[in-house]
Amino acid sequence: MASFMDEKGACFPTQEKLAERTDVSIGTINRDVQELVKFKVDGKPILLRKKYKTKAGHTNSIYRIMPGILTNSKRFLIVAKK
Fold first, then answer.
1. pTM of the entire structure?
2. I need a labelling partner for 63 at 20 to 30 A (CA). Which of 3, 45, 70, 82 fits?
3. What letters, b where the CB count within 10 A reaches 16 and e where it falls short, cover 30-54?
């Protein structure tokens, strides 16, 4: 997800692109993204998702990675070192 991020932390990769890059199924991508959206550090989410409908009726998502939460959290740094 982070490899698609712009300077503001926003990204909008397709499920297909994420699956291709990580060599896993789209179902696995869906489950993993849902888990990331639910995951919180110090009560704050590390990934925000905003869904919207296109004119063609498809649902797309824009994600925002919250990097400040990760770099400012002692708890995350401890978990990341294990």
1. 0.71
2. 82
3. eeebeeeeeeebeeebbbeeeeeee
